[in-house]
Amino acid sequence: MLFDSSIRKELARSFGATLVVLVTVVMTMMLIRTLGQASKGSVSPSDVMLVMGFTVLGQLPTILSLSLFIAVVGTLSRMYRDSEMVIWFASGRGLLSLVKPLLRFAWPVMVVIAVLSLLVWPWANSQIQELKTRYEQRSDIDRIAPGEFQESSNGSRVFFIDKDSPDTQAANNVFIAANDGTRESVTSARSARLETQAGERMVLLSDGQRLETSRSKPGVKISDFSEYGTRLGAASPGSAEELAVKTRTTLSLLMQPLPAYRAELGWRLGLALAALNFVLLGLAVASANPRAARSTSLVFALFGFIVYYNLMTLGQSWVGAGRLGLASFMVLLHGGMLAVSLLVLAIRHNQWSVRRLLPPRPSRATQPQGGQPA
Questions:
Q1: Which of 67, 58, 65 has its CA nearest to residue 17?
Q2: How distant, in Å, are the alpha carbons of 259, 344, 360, 361 from that of 356?
């Protein structure tokens, strides 16, 4: 009991500290990325925190797997470095005896990773997609911020209205620059208001001027108007776009055997299986070399995680392209990693070496000079 409890307490402290650091780093990166999307007009500025929260929630399986891997490697490396492992080995505990306490600590984390990857990951992606679609489907007038030049959704028009506007349905000192490929126009008006006529959204400009130029004809056409109306679109928003593969539920991926769906399913199942492999791999590679730096094991752990993660991404692209089957991919990558981890554990537990595995060399009898036996 002392052996199991001491290891689990050490793992819990290391896992908690690593998780806090990684979540903080990821949240900072996602905040910068989301702010960049908001500046480009892909995300509403009021939804920045929501998009960032859903993004971090979707990345939690990867964060938890990396935290678990670093916790196992860091804890066992410290125990090797402080000669605690020597004491446990001298008391009759082998390397394989560490598997039980490690799995007893890691199984709740692996269950959480499986739930997040299979259920929460598509839900978080669907929420992000819904926020982006809702923001992209708003009208050009809804995009306008008073006192700022704002581009339309298709990039063909630029709007500007005065900051001193009476309400959300009216505006003062309106400027509109439009370009449809063959004609360019600049329209300015003293005021504008929104109206709905026969189910169509209309913007009515009052007391303004319109300058129009054509690329095929020289000259400028100038028009003064007391009232000018232009159509914005239907009064009710259009239907939402079809959900992407990442937003589909795991059950729907199982029901439709398409390569893209199989690739996404392999990614979600791989996140859950990789957590188990990281625990065994961390136990297999954890060691302490007194001549090496203290962070050598952690650097190796990060390198191994990156390689494993990139192989999962590569396998997902191959399955999506139809170059590899889902079952073959799961067996080759995750099954192969499990077999390699167990093999390394067996070699270190039994202290096998290359010299022990090779057959002994036959000894040659010494002979005196001249070739005659002694």
A1: 67
A2: 47, 16, 8, 12
